[in-house]
Specification:
The complex is a heterotrimer of chains A (333), B (210) and C (637). Chain A contains 9 helices and 12 strands. Chain A is of the alpha+beta class and 333 residues long. Chain B is an all-alpha fold and 210 residues long. Chain B has 6 helices and 1 strand; from the N terminus they run βαααααα. Chain C has 637 residues and is mainly α. In chain C, helix 4 runs antiparallel to helix 5, helix 9 packs antiparallel against helix 11 and helix 15 packs antiparallel against helix 16. Classes of the chains: A alpha+beta (333), B mainly alpha (210), C mainly alpha (637). The interface between A and C is large, with 92 and 84 residues.
Chain lengths: 333, 210, 637
Amino acid sequence: MRRGAVLLVMALGGCSALYGPQSSAMGQGMESAHIGNLFDLFLWVTVPIYLGVMVFLALAMRRRQARVQGAARPEQEAGWRLGLVLFAVTSALILFGLSVATWFTDRTIARAGAGPALSVEVIGHQWWWEVRYHDPVAGRELRTANELVIPAGATVKVSLSSPDVIHSLWIPNLAGKQDLIPGRTSDVVLKVPKPGEFRAQCAEFCGLQHAQMALPVSVRAPGDFAKWYNAGLATPPVPGGGPEFAGYSLFTGRQCASCHNIAGTPASGQVAPDLTHFGSRTTIASGVLPNTAASLDRWIADPQRVKPGTQMPQVPLSPEERAAVVAYLESLK
Amino acid sequence: MPSTAPSPQPNFALDLEPLETHAFGNRSLTWWGIVAFFLIEGTAFALAIAAYFFLMSWDHAWPPPPLNPPDLLAGTLFTIVILLSEIPNTLIKWAAEKYELPRVRGLLVLMSLIGLVLLVVRAFEFNSLNVFWYQNAYGSAIWMLLVLHTTHIVTDWVDTLVLTALMFTPHGTEGRRFVDCSENAVYWRFVWLCWLPIYALIYWLPRLVN
Amino acid sequence: MSERTYLRDGPDLTGAALHDKLARTWGDRPGFWGWAASVDHKSIGRRYLVTAFVFLALGGALALAMRLQLSGPQKALIGPDRYNQIFTMHGTTMMFLFAVPVMDAVAIYLLPLMLGTRNLAFPRLNAFSWWMYVAGGSMLWIAFVLNAGPDAGWFSYVPLAGPEFSPGKRVDFWAQMVTFTEVAALAVAVSITATILKARAPGMTLARMPVFAWSMLVVSLMVIFSMPSIALTSAMLMADRMVGTQFFNPYEYGDALLWQHLFWFFGHPEVYIIFLPATGFVSEIVQVFTGRQVFGHTAVVLSLVATGLLAFGLWVHHMFATGLPRMGYAFYTAASMAVAVPSGIQIFCWIATIWTGRPRYRLPMLWVVGFIVTFVAGGLTGVMLASVPLDLQVHDTYFVVAHFHYVLIGGAVFPLLGAVVYWFPKFTGRMMDERWGKLAFWIALPAFHLTFFPMHYLGIMGMPRRVYTYPAGMGWDTLNLISSIGAFLFAGGVLVFVGNALWSLKRGEAAPADPWAAHGLEWTTSSPPAPYNFAHIPVVTSATPLWDPERPVTRGLRVEDREVLLTTVFEARPDLREPSPMPTLWPMIAALATTVLFVCSIFTPWAIVIGSVPVGVALIAWFWPKDRGPEGEPVVD
């Protein structure tokens, strides 16, 4: 993907997004790198074929100047017939070669993804992502939402399912996409050599807010990942006082608790994103807004304005109450 | 505007007057229409059967517990009657192709009655499936197969009734109407041929598979 | 059989006198009821064409709305609910209400003329099909205008389109529209197949049959084998939604993927159903404008057949991301690549025809060149999509949107526009203006590429499909803006084309029977043809009848009753004189009754039972023979 695509793009004026956090041209994961190489091969085969056909057409059109009356004579037809056979055989061989390259890439990807792996489960909902980390210690599970954090260098097997409609997890920089289909489980294997911040997006139309169902993917050095993971397993303390405590009381007293879960509090709703460590996430509402106090206030004040159709209702709160809730949620690191 | 013939008097090379105006089998235009219909409906049946197998292929009992397979009596009775109906059906075809009007009339009345009997038995079949269409995908699948086939029985029965009535009118002496009778018989063969795999899938496969 | 003597065409009855009698026998009465009762394939073909282009305009307007909304990030022109309806309606309109019907339209009009007969087989079925098509399309668009348009995509995946996640009637309107259009398309396919196999002029062996007729034969058989799939599965969807079946509910032993298999088993052949008639157009145009029969005629015909067959083995390539076994996927990669070979063979043959012929670059040829330049690119991105790993990156992104617009617009619409220019004089008796036509071409072709080429990049750069907006700062803004500008320019080019057609209808230069020095039978008829097409059914002795010195004809068909000639399937020897139906309102009435049944059954399943009575009555009246006429020759005393 890299060299071929870059050359083409430069020829047409360049686009910086090829180097962005949501681009399949980057090949920063094991799978996307192999796919990138395959795409390069396809480009190097198909572009010359296209140019060749155009040249053939141009020559055919130019030849009308040196025209003889009537159609081609039979002995000329024999030459063209041979040309047709050669053309058909050559195209079949080329396509066969591309098929073989395809199968080879498939096998390489499958082989590279084998072996012991960190096991993560991603469950798609309308229109957010639930993420669960399976811990080797029985009974322990790290649950989060709308973020996927994985260690660099390790093999991560992400299993995929959905309880509602079909979604698709697509992290273009790292791997191809896989659908999340109700009633089935599938998986995608991630193996990312270097740390980085990426953006994934739902890639199967799933209703009103399909366009705003993104997933920040953070690949961290093993030490950083371990720190994040252990912090994630810990239960945040109930705030002692101040606006955080006021926010805590509001959160657990109002309808927030009936949908959301925050470990260590009475809020144990299961139908909305887990908010236990919300403060350390980078975005709100699955990639729609950056996680800042101002954005969070905006979100809570009127979710429908930010993400029309979202399941989150508008909870009646005064501006001060909202500020308290914001303070509480942002304190959940 | 007249067509632009190259010369004042066209070159008449073939005389079509001696040709007939009706014929049996694949010389008849409506035969091709009926065969096209077979292909369409046959494809629909084949895909419904494929859907049945697709749903069955998951790792669970078929029918899913605690359901029992459909009772055999009504379905088997239906199968026997419809297979036997091929006898008068073939007789109609032969009689039509020989223009034997009284015979055709009598046999068509018989086929109309047989159709009615089959529909009554079919009603009993629906009642003895031991599952409703809304209970699960197994129920939906076998109801779908039975409903699709019933639609064909109904439409062919109505066709037969109309044809029977027609053969008792003065139109009954026309050559093309005998072609219609012959083709109606061919359609009936399609109807019971399609039934055989569906009978097997509804009544026997659930018994053999577990 | 009969004792009566009938007036027949021949040496005693030819020329102007014959024309008068034939015109009276085969003509329609004037006025609305005459038009409504017509079973003349030319009248029905024209209706199909006009209706299809109306839907093209409506679908195109939706596209412009989408491009406006997407021309910049986070625009608030169209909200998600309306946008989801719009993109669903765009795809549904283009695929079901434009692309297939427009190809049917040209076939319905042209095939009897090309094959040397007076009407299609089953003319009343043909008439019925148009009423069904109009009814279904109207129902869908009325629903859309009333904010009840489907919003789950033209492919309507479950469980999203199922009862739980798409409550209300929106998806039901989509599913039932499918029933309407599928009935119409199947009816036309049956009619065309029977016509091509049984109603060709004497001497027109299958080898001498025009390539366009071959393409329509292949396509009609494809319709017969593929449309039942979507008819069945949309009925299953309606059943899930309305009477509680569980076909697609994984919690009750159903399977969401069952929908995808049944949909795409239809959906993939569908795109070749749209593309293959266009290749027929290209063959016809290239032959005439190079002055020779297409190079590799046998190879071209075999390629049509091979494409038609292969098309049924590819559907899983739409499902590469669903997690099916990889071993199975490998087969579909190979098959999806293999289907490019017959298309490539056709391209080679056309270019070889140009090379070895005497090309004249009139307007239809320009569109053919535009087709080659565009379709080959689309075909090559298709080869990329056939590869599973590549597809896993670009599936459901704007890369795919680029691909299929390249093959559908480049591969089907450009040849269609060339065909419209080419056959316009035959249909209307006037020529389209060449200069305005060239202007339309030179706007539309570059504008098309401006619109859709950037989408390849957008897909690679991470932009998914079916999104009503995208965030700022992704780097997608400029390319989207360019694409949107291109879309409006492309619309401008199409408008110039349509304006030219409308203007030329009234003011175009009058056209003779054969303005292009062509070779097919349709060019022996007047422009436009008389209601009876041919005064005497022609006899054919080669594949290029008009380039032969001799033009023999038959004699002996009845003149005061409608009679067509049936010939044998392979050798086209004269076989039977077949009566052809007179005008009748029963097809329209039957379509009306069926429409009521279909529409009401969206609201209650009882409509199926109750509504089938009027439908049955109308059908019986339709098929009940008329009073003893010439075809009612008694064979029994």
